[in-house]
Amino acid sequence: MENRERIIAAADRLHQSTRKIRILTHIAWPQSHRERFLKNRSYKLPNIEYPPFDSTETNVQITEARKLIRDDSEIDGWLSRTADYIENSARLMAAVGTPAFLVHSRALYGAPTDTLRDGSSTDLVVFDADTVQDEATYIDPHRYPTGIDHVMVNGKFVIRSGALTGERPGMWIKGPARPERVTVNQDRD
Question: Cα 17 from chain centroid?
C-alpha cells in the first residue's frame, strides 16, 4: 500500500470510529431535570441515569487505524493524536456518571485552572440564559447583571454562586487612545 493510500485508509478508519461519539448529546440532561435544577437555584445536582456507552465498534476502528499509522511523518503524528482524542472521548462517554469521567474530561479538555498552550489561563462564565438580565441603568451604570452564577478569570473565581469573591486575577487592558478630533473645514468654495 502506498503512503497516500495508507494515510487515507487510516483517516477513514478514524472517521468511522467517531460515528457513535456524540459527547454533548450523551451527557445532556432531560429538560425536566434541567428545569428542576435551575428552579432550585442550582444548589443540588439531579440524579441522572445515563445510558451505557458501548465503545467496542469505536475501539475496533481505532485499532485498525493504528495498524496503518507510522512514526515517520507529521501527518502520522497528527493521525496518532487524533486516535488518542477519539479513544479518550469513547472512554469519557463510557465513564459518564462515575469518578473516572473527570479524569477523562481533564485528559481531553484540561481543568479550568490549567494554563493554555499559549501561556494564558481560561476564563469561564456560567449563566442561566432564561434569567440573565442586565440591571445597569443610565442613573446606575455599574449595577451587576442577574442570572450569572459563576465567573472565573485566569482560573480563579471572581463570582461564585452569584456573589463576588474579592479575587481580582485579571488585568486591565488599555484600549487605543481616543482618536484626535477631526475638524471639518466649513469654508467651501
Answer: 22
Identify residue 134 by its one-letter amino acid code.
D
pLDDT digits (tens, 9 = 90+) for 72-106: 899 999 999 999 999 999 999 999 989 999 999 99
pLDDT digits (tens, 9 = 90+) for 106-162: 989 888 777 777 777 777 888 887 888 888 888 988 888 888 888 888 878 898 888
Enumerate residues 6+ apart whose C-beta is below 8 A from 121. 113, 114, 115, 153, 154, 155, 169
Please give the order of strands across the beta sheet that includes 124-127.
124-127, 148-153, 156-160, 163-164
Cα separation, 62 vs 16, whole angstroms:
9
What lies within 8 Å, CB to CB, of 92 at 6+ separation is 23, 101, 104, 105, 108
DSSP string, 62-92: HHHHHHH--SSSHHHHHHHHHHHHHHHHHHH
3-state helix, strand, coil in the chain (%, to 5): 40, 10, 50
Domain positions in the chain: 3-109, 113-172
H/E stretch holding 24: helix 23-27
